[in-house]
């Protein structure tokens, strides 16, 4: 039985242990499969990303999505967006993220630095639920570079 009423405001994901080491498969509500595995020192075989890496990847994808959408809606000539995400975790359990840095590499034609900065700011302060949620435990910083096509 679900703890929530399944609907538009509820997301779901089923995670199952494969029975092999520390390997897990997640099936998302949109019917996609994601593999996760642990490090060898934890009984894993290093065959897939760690769950905490997935969390960082999700935050990077969420903010990159926002930045591209905001710049496209502003009719800026964006042709690419890459985000390198680096994080530091606490030494003690629970080993939450304590610091996260997003470095954006945005490419396009005659992109204005103030427009890119504003898109990143809007994502980090208003739209990217993943990074805003992670910001409850971690100090989050951003920087960017623009690559001219």
From TrEMBL:
Gene: yhfA
NCBIfam families associated with the record: PRK10738.1
SUPFAM superfamilies assigned to the protein according to its UniProt record, in alphabetical order: OsmC-like
Alphabetical list of Pfam families matching this protein: OsmC (PF02566)
Record-given protein name: Protein YhfA
Entries under InterPro entries matching the protein: KH_dom-like_a/b (IPR015946), OsmC/Ohr_fam (IPR003718), OsmC/Ohrsf (IPR036102)
